[in-house]
């Protein structure tokens, strides 16, 4: 019984919380003003248009994860985004960062959750399950 609960709720909880985190980060970019985010990205050597790509992907993808729609696709997208963030911005600061510069420990954690969701797919509590009527890999 406890294993059935774990296999239903843990993947769902991971998916929903990951979605909330990305949604919050995307909303934050819009609140800062995408022009400001574009300038910030450019100052770090990241093409400015990526600010728009990241903000939209985080908001739309976050919502999609929260409801469990195209979980594997969104998880793969977030893996790519986080690897990009680590390689272009965070890697030089190291895992834990230094002084006032954050490291890449958060991005690494988000990648690992995304890898889990990519590998396992949506939990039974998801729109994916309703639409595609597939049994989840985790049951």
TrEMBL record:
Keyword Transmembrane: yes
Parts of the chain that traverse the membrane: 12-30, 50-70, 77-96, 108-127
One Pfam family recorded for the sequence: DoxX
Predominant location category: membrane
Entry keyword annotation includes Cell membrane: yes
Subcellular localization(s) per the UniProt record: Cell membrane
PANTHER family: INNER MEMBRANE PROTEIN YPHA-RELATED (PTHR33452:SF1), OXIDOREDUCTASE CATD-RELATED (PTHR33452)
Family: Belongs to the DoxX family.
Name of the protein: DoxX family membrane protein
Organism: Paenibacillus dendrobii
Lineage: Bacteria, Bacillati, Bacillota, Bacilli, Bacillales
């Amino acid at each position: 019984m406890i294993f059935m609960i774990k296999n239903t709720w843990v993947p769902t909880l991971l998916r929903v919380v990951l979605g909330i985190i990305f949604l919050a980060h995307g909303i934050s970019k819009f609140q800062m003003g995408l022009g400001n985010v574009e300038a910030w990205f450019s100052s770090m050597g990241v093409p400015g248009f990526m600010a728009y790509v990241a903000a939209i992907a985080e908001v739309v993808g976050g919502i999609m994860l929260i409801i469990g729609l195209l979980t594997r696709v969104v998880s793969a997208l977030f893996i790519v985004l986080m690897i990009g963030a680590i390689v272009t911005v965070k890697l030089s600061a190291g895992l834990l960062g230094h002084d006032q510069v954050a490291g890449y420990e958060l991005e690494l954690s988000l990648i690992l959750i995304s890898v889990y969701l990519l590998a396992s797919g949506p939990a039974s509590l998801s729109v994916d399950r309703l639409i595609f009527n597939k049994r989840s890999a985790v049951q």
